[in-house]
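Extended Data, panel c. Modelled sequence:
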Amino acid sequence: MKKFIRYFFHRDHVIITLFGFALLAILSVMVVNIGFLNPVSQALENFSITDMFFEIEHTDEPEECNIITIVDMTELYDRGDIAELIQEVDECNPMCIGVDLIFEGEKDDSIGNELLEQTLLHLRSPTVFANKLTDYSGVNNSFQGIVRSYCAEKCGITEAYTNVTDDMMGSNIRRLSTHRLYKGQKQTSFPVKIAEMTDVYNDTNYGEDLLINYRDVDFRVIPHEQIEENRDVLAGSVVIIGTMNEERDMHNTPLGKMSGAKIQAYSLLTVLEHQQIRHVPDIICWIIAFLLCYLLEVAVDIFYQISKAHPNSVFQTFIREANIVSIVFLFIFEILSCWAFYILFIKGSLLMSGGIILASLVLTCEARDIYRALIKGFYSKYDNKQFFSNSLMIEGNL
C-alpha cells in the first residue's frame, strides 16, 4: 500500500501535470498576442461547447411551449394593417404582448399613422414595444443614442431594447443582456420587460448577461391572417408579434439561422422558467482539469511501467516507445469528459469551461513526452545522476 501511495504521488506525475498547464499558458499567450494568430483566436472565441450540446439535444419532435406564442407579421408593411393586427391580438385577451417592431418616423401615411396611434392609446393588454440602443461608449459603459417609435411619448407606450449580444462579426447569438445603461440610466431588455408583466415572473437578481437556453422546445407560430381561428390559443398566452421570415432580421444561433422574434421567445422562456445556464466557476474547472490530467498521467505511466518490465518484448517495446497508449487514454478521457459535460448541461443546466479541461488533457500527454525526453537526455549526459535516479522515466526505477 505504501509503495502504491508513493508511486501515485510521485514527483514526476506532479511535474508533468504542471508542465502541461505551463504549455497551455504559453500557447494561450501566443494566440492572444501574436498578430498572425489572430484568426485562430477569433475562431476559438466563436466556438462554444454549448452549440454542440444544443444541437445534440434538439430532436424531430420538440416539446411545444404552452406559454409563448409568436404571431408572424412578415408580410405586413402598412401601418394601418399592423395596427389592426395588434388590435386583433389585444382582443384575444393575452396575458401580455411584445411587439418586436420600431415605428420609425411618421412617414406620409397619415391614415395609417392615425389608426396606429388610436390603437396604441386604447390597448387593454400589457404591451411592450421595441426600441434600440445606439452609440455605445466604452468610457462610461453606456449607450448615448436610442431609436424609438415616433409616437412613443405621445401614446405613452412601454418600450424596451431589443439589441442582441454579439461581436458584430456574424457570430452566434448566445447571450441575453438583461439590462444596459442609456446616458447613465438603467434600461431593461425586451424579454425581461415582457416577463415582468406576466403572472408567472419571479423577480430574480440576474446579472447583466444570461446564456440563452435554446432547449428542445418549439413555439406556436400563428400567421397574421389566422388570428380569429386561434383566439383560444392566444387567450392567456404571452404573445410576441414579429417577423419570422424577414432576411434582415435573421441571426446566427447555435441552432442555425433564426428570426429575431424566435430569439426573443427563447430569451423570454429562459427568464420565465429560470432555466438560464449557470457557469461553473473557473477555479472549480481548473481544479477538475488538474485532477483529470493527473489521473491521465498516472494511467499512461502504469502502462509505461508494465512495458518496462518486459524490455525484450517487441510488443512491449512498441507500447513503451510509441504514443499509442497516450492517444488511446487521451481519447477515453476526452470522451468521458464530454459525456460528463453534456449530462451536467442537460440535467443540471450547468456549463463548465470544457475548453480548459480538454486542452489541458491534450497538453499533459505532450508534456509527458517532452519530460521523458529531457530526463533521458540529462541522465545520459551528466555524471551527477542523483536528481534523475528516482525518476519513473529511467529504466529500472519504480
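Residues 39-46 have pLDDT under 50 and may be disordered. This feature is highlighted in the accompanying rendering.
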